Amino acid sequence: MMKKHPTTTAPMSSIAPVNVVDAKFKANPFPFYAQLRAEAPVFPVTLPTKQRAWLITRYDDVLNVLKDERFAKDRRNAMSPEQLKKMPWIPPMFKPLERNMLDLDSPDHTRLRALVHKAFTPRLVERMRDQIQTLTDELLDAAERKGGMDLVADFALPLPLTMIGRILGVPAGDNHKFHRWTKTFLAAGASMNYIVLIPTVMRFLGYLKKLIKERRIHPKDDLITALVQARDGSDQLSEDEVLGMIFLLLVAGHETTVNLIGSGSLALLERPDQLTKLRNEPALIKPAIEELLRFVCPVEMATERYAREEITIAGTTIPRGELVLAVIGSANRDANYFDNPDELDITRKNNRHLAFGHGVHYCLGAPLSRLEGQIAINTLVQCMPNLRLNTTPDQVRWRSSFILRGLEALPVSF
Asked: What is the Cα 35 distance to its own chain's centre?
């Protein structure tokens, strides 16, 4: 019988504040989340932007937030005029980036998702299987010749980055630019460091606009062309919506999978029994990937939501207009839903993790991320029987980030 959460909560003042974007916190946030689930399941933190955010940490509450329409994705649909006036200034050039599915509510979200879904189908993803396997083999062959690699920079990163680039139609030689831009954007975005963000976004959007213009004149068999041409009756994506969508797909289409492959490999290396079990039973790769998604939490928190009205969760009232962060990394360790939640078990059954979210904003790229993770990790495990860490686990560097959780580097040898 699984334990039930206590009905009373401890005073929030008794819990030490943390910096949720700090690299040291990212290395092991789970004890803190366990304390919150037990004592303060709705907990306020101050972000580097000085904005207050409410961490929601219990599985049931996280699931409800992901489904509840009282939480808006677009802050303009939740905040009062007075609250909106107090929001930090956002440069006008950033406006196209807000026209993506992650930051919109219905009916705009429903319309965009329907148009993009026609271009980004499971059939397209399955067509990529052979290409993913070939690229995986090439990356590992190159690493094997050197006798070692940084598993993040040399494997976990180039695989999904190259694949999403191919799907979209980005020239392969430009992939390094996109990684540099997205890495800068994600790191600087947590603190809204405009000195860094503005030139990065200008370059990013300038490049994308040229690519879109090129596809309007010379269509190709790629996703950018499909987005430019996507229609639902007389409806089609505006210029800003195409820009926002490509930006979202480029960032979300590789960053989360980098974290799954990198952090997932580290989790297996730290648990030789699970690594050996997967090596001996490669058919376990599907449940293994689901367990790694639950355990390492590539997306630690769901993207921002704002309370449309005053809402009470677990005895704590969240004021209207305030930022709410549903902590997927905490929900996935909730003992009410997972036996021995802090243990990695690649044979786990009924694994109802929330790694890809839930509800209308469920990750559109989940099938691609799963497929890339399955092929990458299974091939790595089978082809590298002597795979080992080239450092101690406590020296592994984690990235400082907001929503995501992943490694800066992972040196390994064979």
From this structure: 24
Residue 233's SS3 state is coil
Read off the pLDDT of residues 188-208 as tens digits, 9 standing for 90 and up: 655 567 677 788 888 888 999
Beta bridge partners of 305: 324
Q: What is the number of other CB atoms lying within 10 angstroms of the CB of residue 193?
A: 15
340 or 3, which is more confident = 340
Decide: 301 and 327 in contact? Cβ < 8 Å. Answer: yes
For residues 62 and 161, what is the distance between their CA atoms, to the nearest angstrom?
Answer: 30
Pairing of strands 52-56, 323-326: parallel
Radius of gyration (Cα) for the chain, nearest Å? 21
Map tokens 């005073």 to a residue: 11
Q: Is the entire prediction scored with pTM above 0.85? A: yes
Domain 21-413, what architecture?
Orthogonal Bundle (1.10)
- Greatest alpha-carbon span in the chain: 63
Q: Which tokens go with 211?
A: 């690519």
Phi-psi category of 367—alpha, beta or left, where left has phi over 0 and alpha has psi -120 to 50? alpha
User: 351-387 pLDDT, tens per residue?
Assistant: 999 999 998 888 888 889 999 999 999 999 999 999 9
User: Where in the chain are the domains?
Assistant: 21-413
Distance CA 357, CA 303 (A): 9
Instruction: Give yes or no for a cis peptide into 107 (omega within 30° of 0).
Output: yes
